[in-house]
Amino acid sequence: MSMWPVGLSEIREQTVVVARAAFPKGSVAIRVRDRLAEVFGDEPFAAAFGVRGAPGLSSGVLLLVMVLQFVEDLTDR
After folding, report:
1. 68 with 15: CB under 8 angstroms?
2. Which string of DSSP letters, residue by residue, matches the chain?
3. How confident is the model at residue 23 (pLDDT cuts 50, 70, 90)?
């Protein structure tokens, strides 16, 4: 498995407007993404992957999902 670090993608402006309208004070997910986006980039994990093979899922995004599952006390199902 390989990884091509890309980092977190930009959020479309329309999505930001809708999220801010739905959660004027923000939500846990919004605050985590806004404040810790650079923590969940792929670059720190790149050395753990090979250079050949099919690309794996983004480790940064998977880590972000796990953190949000823990904070919200959700199962992994």
Report:
1. no
2. -B-----PPPPPHHHHHHHHHH-TT--HHHHHHHHHGGGG-SGGGGGGSBSSSSBPPPHHHHHHHHHHHHHTT----
3. very high
* pLDDT reported for residue 7: 66
- 46 burial (CB, 10 Å; 0-12 / 13-18 / 19+) is middle
Question: Is a pLDDT exceeding 80 seen at residue 77?
Answer: no
Residues in the chain: 77
pTM of the model: 0.61
What is the distance between the alpha carbons of residues 38 and 8, in angstroms, rounded to a whole number? 8
